[in-house]
Amino acid sequence: MLKEGDKAPEFCLKGIDEKGEEKEFCLKDFRGEKLILYFYPKDDTPGCTTEACDFRDNLSQLNSLGIRVVGVSPDSTNSHRKFKEKYNLNFTLLSDPDHSVASAYGAYGEKKMYGKTKMGIIRSTFLIDEEGRLQKAWYNVKAKGHVEKILKELKI
Prior knowledge:
CATH superfamily: Glutaredoxin
Order of helices and strands: EEEHEHEHEEEEH
Low-confidence stretches: none
Strand order of the largest sheet: 2-1-5-4-3-8-9
Shape: globular
CATH architecture: 3-Layer(aba) Sandwich
Mean pLDDT: 95
Number of domains: 1
Largest sheet: 7 strands, mixed
Helix content: 25-40%
Number of helices: 4
Strand content: 25-35%
CATH topology: Glutaredoxin
Distance between the termini: 27 Å
């Protein structure tokens, strides 16, 4: 697990931007601005949709603080495009099919679901500062109410 003050692991992933265009994004592309990088298990599932729509609905408050929002899941860019269109998501979604970036952030590992242990995405969110350092790390978050908690911690 990463902790506050750690250098955020570098990455380059394909994704769908705010306008629905597919391109490659690297962490270095976000230098000079704050970034919320959040990891979620799967497009268009109940919890992930709740979390994505909460980020969508609160994006203007986060943007007013100079914070960009980027979601990451193992889903394909085609799946991300459909998810974005269906729910009018107004932020970038990145595709991490081999879980390499999620693993680097400690957001992939063993999870217990319905009494069974399996490998998967651990719902996690990171606030990365302008220099690429972790300002805050939230692990094992609950989808419902998570964005509200972030806003409270940022004192909005």
